[in-house]
């Protein structure tokens, strides 16, 4: 908590520093440390706290002085400082103020957004003397210009790849594995698997944690390397650091990869989905997949329970097709037809759903409904 408070205090002044020097060319003085702050950073943090307290108390005293009615330089400074702090405070993340705010701040455009309102405060007394029509003309224009400037600067940081690429480059002197991990995850989400592999391997060599192993598992799955993906996911489960929901997602991903093997073991797939649901019983995606796997195993009553639970939250072509297959096996033709048609609405011209629907009209030639496992 102390380190978080010191970081937040320093960031108050770093935001001002970023107004003067563009962030793209800024060599930051504070680099993240995995174990916390260095002794020098702690000292600078306490200096920032002292300056913050002195400037704030002085501004309050100046603005609270009833004798000072004229628009003096001290009252201008007090109004600007208090306005700046009031607008900046929600962005400081005092309780969980992580290191990335120094080198890869999603809100790096905020100094410019914060610069406008304090400047308006300088002329607050004068503005009150102006006519309402003039105020109505000036205020929207000020907000429009401020919004355009903020949006323009924000565009550079809105993309996760750009954000974490800058963070990795800025911390090159003292590599921070968490930045490489976040960059790898962002690249993976963007479909750039080769670059994601480089970033995630760098993160793994710097800090072999469960989350990076999980991300590497998903990377191998995207590449089609099922066995390597399973190995990484097992490694993730063997290491501490996964939350309950993350562990549930890992078991789910393992079940999906097991189903992609050349000779999948259905019981093992069912066990993995069951382990996922034991950790996170209300996970709709796993309920759907578990229900479909149970249907493939011929356990229609259990499958129906899980598919109906999932249907309350989500719907997919595979889920609707699975429900149709179960009702078809029970000779409930109307219900089966409705679900097969719903599957075709969600995925037009899907061969399996079309075949299942056609089979309902010709029971003699029916080979049986098809249930598809999917990721």
Automatic annotation (TrEMBL):
TPR repeats lie at residues 317-350. The lineage of its organism: Eukaryota, Sar, Alveolata, Dinophyceae, Suessiales. The chain crosses the membrane at residues 43-64, 76-95. InterPro entries: TPR-like_helical_dom_sf, TPR_rpt. This is Dolichyl-phosphate-mannose--protein mannosyltransferase. Keywords: Membrane, TPR repeat, Transmembrane, Transmembrane helix. It comes from the Eukaryota. It comes from Durusdinium trenchii.
């Amino acid at each position: 908590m102390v380190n978080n408070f010191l970081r937040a205090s320093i960031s108050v002044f770093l935001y001002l520093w970023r107004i003067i020097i563009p962030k793209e060319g800024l060599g930051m003085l504070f680099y993240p440390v995995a174990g916390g702050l260095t002794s020098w950073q702690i000292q600078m943090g306490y200096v920032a706290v002292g300056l913050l307290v002195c400037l704030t108390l002085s501004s309050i005293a100046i603005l609270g002085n009833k004798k000072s009615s004229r628009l003096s330089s001290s009252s201008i400074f007090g109004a600007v400082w208090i306005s700046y702090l009031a607008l900046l405070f929600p962005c400081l993340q005092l309780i969980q103020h992580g290191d990335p705010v120094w080198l890869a701040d999603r809100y790096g455009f905020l100094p410019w957004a914060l610069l406008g309102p304090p400047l308006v405060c300088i002329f607050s007394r004068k503005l009150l003397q102006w006519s309402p029509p003039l105020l109505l003309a000036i205020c929207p224009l000020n907000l429009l210009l401020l919004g355009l400037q903020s949006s323009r600067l924000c565009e550079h940081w809105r993309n996760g790849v750009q954000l974490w690429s800058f963070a990795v480059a800025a911390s090159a002197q003292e590599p921070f594995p968490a930045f490489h991990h976040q960059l790898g995850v962002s690249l993976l989400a963007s479909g750039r698997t080769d670059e994601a592999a480089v970033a995630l391997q760098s993160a793994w060599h710097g800090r072999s944690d469960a989350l990076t192993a999980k991300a590497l598992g998903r990377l191998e799955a995207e590449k089609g390397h099922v066995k390597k993906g399973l190995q990484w996911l097992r490694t993730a489960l063997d290491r501490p650091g996964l939350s309950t929901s993350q562990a549930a997602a890992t078991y789910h991903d393992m079940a999906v990869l097991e189903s992609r093997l050349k000779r999948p073991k259905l019981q093992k797939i069912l066990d993995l989905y069951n382990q996922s649901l034991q950790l996170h019983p209300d996970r709709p995606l796993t309920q759907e997949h578990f229900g479909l796997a149970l249907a493939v195993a011929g356990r229609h009553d259990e499958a129906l329970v899980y598919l109906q639970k999932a249907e309350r939250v989500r719907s997919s072509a595979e889920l609707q097709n699975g429900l149709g297959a179960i009702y078809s096996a029970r000779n409930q033709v109307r219900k089966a037809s409705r679900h097969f048609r719903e599957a075709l609405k969600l995925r037009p011209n899907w061969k399996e759903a079309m075949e299942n629907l056609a089979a309902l009209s010709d029971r003699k030639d029916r080979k049986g409904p098809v249930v598809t496992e999917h990721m």
